[in-house]
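Appendix B.2, paired examples.
Example (i):
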Amino acid sequence: MMKTTMLAIFLSAFSYAQQSYSINGMVKDESSGEPITGAIITIKENPNISIETNGYGFYTLSLPENDYTLVITHPKHKALTKTIHLAETLKIDWALEKENEIEMVEIKGKKSPVVTKSKLGGDVLDVMATSKLPVLFGERDILKTLQFLPGVVSNEGSSGLSIRGGNTDQNLVLFDGAPVFNNSHFLGFFSTFNSDALRDVTLYKSNIPSQFGGRLSSVLDIKGKEGNNQKFGVNGGIGLISSRLSVEGPIQKGKSSFIISGRRTYADLLYRLISKEESAKSAKLYFYDLNAKLNFQINANNSIHLSGYLGKDIFKYDEFHNNWANAASSLRWNSIISSKLFSTTSLIYSNYNYNIGVENIVSETVDIKPNINNLVFKQDFSHSINQKHSLNYGIQASYYNFSLPKISGSQTDLFVDEKRSMWENALYINDDFKPMEGLSLNYGIRAAMYSAGKDQLAYGDAGEKTSHIIFEPRIMMNYELNKSNLITASYNRSSQGITALSANDGSFTNDIWINLKKPMVSDHFGLGYTKKFEGGYEIGTDVFYKKMSNIADYKEGVKISQVDDLQNNLLFNGIGRAYGIELLAKKTSGKLTGWISYTLSKSERKINGINQGNWYNATQDKTHNLSIVANYSVSPKWTFSGAFVFATGNAVTFPVAKYTIDGNTALQYGARNGNRMPSYNRLDINATYEPQNNKRFKSSWSFGLYNIYGKLNPYSIEFSSDGFFPTDVKISKFVLFAIVPNITYNFKF
């Protein structure tokens, strides 16, 4: 026995002493040439050795000289096997064939799940799988799908997300690396992202990798399609209030490609047809967006990618108008520097602005036009050291320009017109470490450096400059007890140097972004457990605790319906905390699939000067949040789906007294956010019909009902004095939707 053990140790040591060689390459879809993220390459002779492709389809691993069988798998593609003799550095590219959807459902009894977990703990959405879920107006929307996940809270008529008790402005939303500062269309009923233009969507809410920074709560990393470099294709859809169209194809087959996607609503046209009011003739209520991308494969190791997005909302009724626009572009250079080193160099520009105004009684147009510009340079490296260590490191430089509200006409003295700027730079490094079988660690640190110019809006100290360096350690542990049981634990420190000021009166006024003299900081702890069962069943639970500092909020009794006098109505240097438990049960196989998510949580703030310095509920605090989502494939042609949502009502402040001074009646309000609106619930259903199609042309019909039982969920509540009964208070409830039907025709050829 001793001799056998010594021989095993000797052979193991000898194998590590052997020279190792690298295998690297790109993994792409065979039919489109699109890179495949999250494909797993394993070694048949040693299944414990595996590597996952990065966000651009690149992989690399090192092994001693020997004969190997490589197996590559991906949920939406057929597995592929290659046998090699490794005696030198090899470059092996893979082209994977897509699984036949009907075959997956009927023969294999499985489906590609809507949501899966990445190795770094991110929630990965299958963009195509979301197409059959019920949504408002029948428009497939990845942000609306995210609202069904645990730890994610949103209000009806809003694309803003509150992640684990954070504000909606505490989420870093990236489209092809470019930050998007307002992710809503159509007064919040649509998101800015046309799903036809999207390839990969990942939400990080627990472990945020070190390459991301600048927000406290989460990162939503969205990557657009590269465009088909093999053949031309067209797809789109026609709905009741919106239509969309995408065109893609090769510029030079196999080497370069393009994709152009556009979308527009025509609600204003329908309103003009059904309304008899004279003002309807000039009313405008629509949005449009345009995505475009060019990709060039320069040689086997270098490629250039140019991405652009433009979206605009137009709302005009009588003398009032409210318009806003997003523009974002990125130029990215991907380079395989060596068999172990992958480089991404990015130059990014993003802009958000809006214009809100009204024609006053003397026919003088009042226009308020705040905006934010952001220019970013990023240099990122992925470096495979050996089988146990894989590094990501890089540098990022971000420059912001803020323009405060500008007002035309005679009232310019009511508003600050002061341009401000801020630098946000960072260095980061993190290591994906596999110390032993079943255990993996991802740990690193980010050094964020903030340097701000004048900030009259937030602090009033003209000319004062501030600089801060914040070190942000981050670590995540995954421990597989076996193939069916997984334990995760994480800690993240994040900082944020900008914030958005929003209306707090339930109006649709958009956000105004400002920089902070002192960045907000968050420490986030998480612990999770996942159990997998046979038959595609899975359950998971996560507990979290998050503490925040340098939080801002409005003073007591202040209502901000526009952007007036913000400087004197804000309080800073507050603290916050959020904690809770998340439960998720999923079924991913068979004709019936879906999930149930439930979150029990608390989100609170504490700021001197508010609620007598005591803790109070954050506006986004919702104790209970339940979602049930189901898909049932009746046949290859028909799929039915449904979604039920229940949530605690929004935290609001009710009046507790009414008094009159010098003939003027006023209301006295109670503790900040000490009351609740009625609980929210609704049920949505959808049916998708996919007729028999040929290989060239595919089509489908989608029929749905949003809020099928017509629950009148209040969007906001207003309180005012009752003129007839001096002791009473008049309550006005504003409701957005009752029952909303949708019919959409989708096509692809």
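Example (ii):
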Amino acid sequence: MHRFFLAFLFLCLARQTSCSAQEFSQETKLASTAKIWGFLKYYHPQVAKGKFNWDEQLLKMLPKVIEAANKEALSKIYMDWINTLGKVKECTSCHKASEEEFFDKNFDLSWIKDSILFTTALSNKLKFIEKNRFHGKHHYIEAKYETVGNVTLKNEPEYPDFDWKDRSNRLLLGFKYWNVIEYFFPYKYQTDKPWNQVLLETIPKLDSVKTEAEFQHTLLQMVVNIDDAHGAFVSSNVKYKWPPYKLRYIDEKIVVSGYYRNSLTQSYPFQRGDVIVAVNDRPLHDIMAEKKPFVWGSNEASRNRNLANFIMPPFENKNVKVNFLRDGEKNEAVIGYYPSQNTKPDKPEKFRVIQDNIGYVNMGVIERTDVSKIMDSLKNTKAIIFDIRNYPKGTLYNLAQYLIPERRLFFKAIKPDLSYPGRFLWTNGRECGNIKGEPTYTGKIILLVNEYTQSHAEFTTMALQTADKVTTIGNQTAGADGNVSELDLGAGIKTYMSGIGIFYPDGLETQRIGVKIDIEVLPSIDGIKDNRDEVLERAIAFVNKGS
């Protein structure tokens, strides 16, 4: 029995030693550096004032961190670093109770107490800085619009001669992006993969890349992991060219859904409903499986929408061989790339009266100055269909005057608390509707949505959904609501994120979920082939039959 106990104890100690060794690894050390560097950037009063070249400070610290053999050595490196930054005075205003309502699902500074990596003295030092954090005009961040609150970056180096081959430079850009999301992305709590895990997985990838393309793909994967359809990735080193035809993801297939300009229909080999099966002799499903990890989106609807756009390599000038099916028959064509003017769409009509005295309004083209004329022309129709499968032009408040009989709240929001990075503040949403209580439109109101309904389009839908006798028809929207923040990381690399959080007045989330839909209508390949608008057809049927 005694021998068994000793063996059991030895096994436990061996496992504990192994676990500790694994946790105190290069990845975890570098991850702690990323966190402390970002924390000091946004919290330390002297750093937040811009008194240091903060990127250069990180580059100097990295070799020391890599050499640290245990937590005592690592903590000393951090303590010595912090001590060079100047004294942190006690902040009396930081401790005052606030009457504001906080949203804390994103807030997490628990890593400060990491006993595997940090000594108690270091943890206490970091906690002191948190309690006596910077207040005032920040050197690195500001609210883009004070009333809205989404952040914009400032005073970040451009790095026109950025050397991606330098390991420390690669880590610098990765750490910079990670911390912006950590502190200022309102939907961090919704990501499929925990943001801390993304950091740990990204560090070895940044460490081992062999080409500039691999480096950019690694950063792109970080963007993909915020699960935000606003999270586009743009590099100045890539010059995009796009084909003139539209592709859409339907039933796990990529289908030609039309051309951006009707005049091009006879000039190119594709027809509506053609199903792409191979590109340059590679099966399409292989291409989709390869590209999908690098496609951003909030949900499957928006990811697949974007995936369809990246099936053809958008930055290659050479022709592409495409195999496709038309009515079940195999076809082959060679497709070229064309100047951007070929992808500028024809201008559709703004509104019209369609069958059975039903009005139709294209929300993607009408301006605010058009609203009064449109509503006057359609006031006697039995229903108006508002097509929001596009990007509206800020007409929602003007339309609400005619559609909603009184002022009604249609959203609530959260914005970053710049005085306490990582925390968010609830803000009062806005109302829309008739200000004077005058008579409004009395017919049915139909809203058409799909995966192209994103951001301001979703916001517009939420507003118009407060009307009486309103029905929303279509399929899941993009799930990317809230003003966009552009993040210029330097080295010609930019990305974006949803900068504020948007919710229905009852707190129901729209990010990743999309807006509420009353009647779901999924597109079909047959509908595309026959040039039928199945969502519009369903809307007309609903108006006429009431179901």
